[in-house]
Design goal:
By secondary structure, the chain is an alpha+beta fold. It is built from 8 helices and 16 strands. Helix content is 26%, strand content 25%.
Length: 319
């Protein structure tokens, strides 16, 4: 196998900028062995005023909330974590994705770490260039758009009495990983999971919206799903457009009678669903509302909507 050149990027690691390949953790670390790593993922977009992070404030607050829920005593406050993310972004030109992680790097034998020090690492990178293209398996098959969805019948999404749905922690993704793998083997692109009451919850890394049979834009209540930053942005954009979205439980049977169903997420944006369990959704896909909201979101992310410019944190030297 031909040896690849190292990735020419640096990782912000506890206040230092270290080469990409040196940002490592021991195989026996608590974060790896117990799934205790907390993270957040955000986008860095090109705009007329230079690169900008989309809704950085919400991402930082969500990450700190996840640390609190999981008992990680992160030493950084909101202002310090914000400054660290901006520093990492400036140090990695042409990066498009930002993943900030907080974890117990110490080697531990118990489920409760004896060493409570939390390591913080911030990676800014291009997913395609720095990860996908370097995979020994090459690029994965392109996901179809719109999506064919499998409604997961075996695994339930996050349960509040086990791990809070609001905690963005690595352990929370294990069940959806295996469920999505099963669905892909059956020819589906993505899955939707239900909550403990068998209401529609969310996708593994996305929130879900429907335009129901009465034309009402709905999404499952925040209490049962991750506080998606893109979800919140779409709700605000919809209200600004004169719509009245509601946060109400969604029954699985309502998906089949919906006019539109779509997913939202940092990577996904607004992504229309063509079918669920092989049953076609609506008369046209993508539907008019998913197209409208997707365009409004793209305009906001790219700095082309002055009304939502406050959602952007510009990382140029002038800030």
């Amino acid at each position: 196998m031909q040896e690849r050149s190292p990735v020419d990027r640096v990782i912000w690691l506890n206040g230092d900028l270290v080469p990409w390949e040196q940002a490592t953790v021991h195989v026996l670390s608590h974060s790896l062995q117990r799934g205790s790593l907390v993270f957040d993922y955000m986008s860095l977009n090109a705009t007329p005023r230079g690169p900008a992070i989309f809704r950085l404030d919400l991402h930082v607050r969500r990450m700190l909330q996840s640390c609190e829920l999981m008992g990680l005593p992160i030493a950084l406050n909101e202002a310090e974590l914000t400054a660290a993310i901006i520093e990492a972004a400036r140090a990695n030109p042409d990066g498009h994705a930002i993943k900030a992680s907080a974890y117990f790097a110490s080697l531990e034998v118990d489920v409760v770490p004896a060493d409570p020090r939390v390591t913080v690492a911030i990676a800014v990178y291009d997913p395609q260039t720095d990860l996908v293209s370097r995979s020994p398996q090459g690029a994965p098959p392109k996901t179809r758009r719109p999506l064919r969805i499998w409604l997961e019948k075996q695994a339930h999404q996050r349960r509040d009495d086990i791990v809070s749905p609001q905690a963005k922690v690595s352990a929370n993704y294990a069940s959806s990983m295996t469920a999505k793998a099963r669905a892909q083997q059956l020819g589906f692109d993505e899955i939707l999971l239900v909550d403990e009451d068998d209401h529609i919850a969310e996708g593994p890394t996305t929130n879900v919206f429907i335009v129901d049979a009465d034309g009402i834009l709905r999404t499952p209540p925040e209490k049962r799903v991750l506080q998606g930053v893109t979800r919140q942005s779409v709700l605000e954009l919809a209200r600004a457009s004169g719509l009245e979205p509601t946060e109400t439980p969604v029954e699985p049977s309502e998906l089949m009678g919906a006019k539109e169903v779509f997913l939202t997420g940092t990577t996904a944006g607004v992504l229309a669903i063509e079918s669920v369990d092989g049953e076609k959704i609506g008369d046209v896909c993508p539907g008019p509302l998913s197209v409208q909201l997707g365009e409004l979101l793209r305009r906001a992310e790219s700095g082309n909507d002055p009304a939502f410019d406050h959602w952007l944190t510009y990382i140029g030297a002038e800030g």
